[in-house]
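Milestone 3.1: sequence recovery, worked example.
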């Protein structure tokens, strides 16, 4: 049995490595030339202490000076003593450079491109091999004919050869102009990653997803992954846009709802002349019930004013969610996650 272990470094870089059944995580990482900081290898010094965010594992012998009982109960592990028994996400308290690993580079050809929306472009890239990432993460795509890159979240599920993206058509934007006017199927794209701390955590309580515009992309990735890995907790997506033309992927969302009994979504449009049944920002159509008395994980992806608006809404409701994870993006798609 082989397990996929996602190593999350503190500089936002991710590496997904295979770990054989019974293999120590530190040894698996070393096989791939990733040097997780460690000294003793005996569970005595605590140098290789990391946090396992999800997954199951067995721990060999260690002393409490290296890992206390409370730390172990909170999911902290010593990678020199940790043997994964499932796929895991492990946060490494060091940069990728400190662990002597590099950002992975990839390439692939554009397999499809859709310009049906006046404000967005969707496209897919046929990768050379299946790409492992955490649903919600992004890559940096190099704009053909330049050395510039732009950051875009996957809208496809992990571990596939066809990678999909949904991007905003920014007027005079470098990547937007290429995708709108020049790109053709068969064009080759280079990209690096995956990156990002905005990704789906284990679903152990209700989930509220708030998407603004093309901030829908990472949620499509999460939902597509959840379709194949069902959970029982309720999941609600609130998808808001400025104009009616900005609404995309409604058919995809309807298809997901049809096969995911615990998933629901609604849309809202800011433009009062749109005729949309829900006008204004998504928070105008949410209430305390969607916060489940704080027993909820909230994910937000959209422009900075949206993220700030959600914070204000939560303060006004007077309920603090168990987890609040967000990703802001600007017109150049620079991402800030937390």
């Amino acid at each position: 049995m082989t397990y996929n272990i996602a190593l999350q470094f503190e500089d936002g870089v991710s590496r997904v490595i295979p770990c054989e059944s019974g293999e120590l995580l530190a040894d698996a990482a070393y096989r791939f030339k990733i040097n997780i900081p460690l000294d003793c290898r005996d569970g005595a010094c605590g140098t290789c202490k990391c946090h396992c965010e999800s997954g199951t594992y067995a721990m060999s012998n260690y002393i409490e000076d290296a890992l206390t009982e409370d730390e172990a109960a909170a999911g902290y592990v010593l990678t020199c003593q940790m043997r994964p028994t499932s796929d895991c996400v492990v946060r490494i308290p060091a940069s990728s450079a400190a662990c002597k690993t590099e950002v992975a580079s990839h390439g692939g050809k554009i397999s499809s491109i859709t310009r049906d929306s006046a404000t967005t472009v969707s496209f897919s890239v046929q990768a050379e091999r299946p790409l492992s990432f955490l649903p919600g993460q992004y890559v940096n795509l190099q704009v053909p004919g330049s050395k510039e890159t732009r950051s875009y979240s996957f809208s496809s599920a992990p571990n596939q050869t066809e990678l999909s993206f949904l991007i905003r058509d920014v007027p005079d934007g470098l990547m937007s102009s290429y995708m709108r006017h020049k790109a053709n199927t068969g064009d080759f794209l280079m990209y690096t990653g995956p990156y990002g701390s905005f990704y789906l955590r284990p679903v152990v309580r209700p989930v509220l997803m708030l998407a603004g515009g093309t901030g829908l992309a990472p949620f499509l990735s999460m939902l597509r992954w959840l379709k194949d890995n069902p959970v029982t907790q309720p999941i609600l997506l609130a998808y808001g846009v400025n104009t009616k033309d900005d609404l995309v992927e409604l058919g995809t969302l309807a298809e997901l709802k049809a096969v995911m009994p615990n998933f629901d979504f609604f849309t809202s449009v800011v433009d009062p002349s749109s005729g949309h049944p829900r006008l204004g920002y998504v928070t105008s159509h949410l209430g305390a019930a969607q916060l489940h008395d704080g027993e909820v994980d909230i994910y937000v992806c959209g422009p900075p004013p949206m993220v700030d608006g959600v914070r204000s809404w939560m303060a006004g409701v007077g309920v603090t969610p168990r987890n609040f994870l967000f990703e802001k993006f600007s017109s150049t798609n620079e991402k800030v996650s937390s």
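Residues 332-338 have pLDDT under 50 and may be disordered. The first strand starts at residue 2 and ends at 9.
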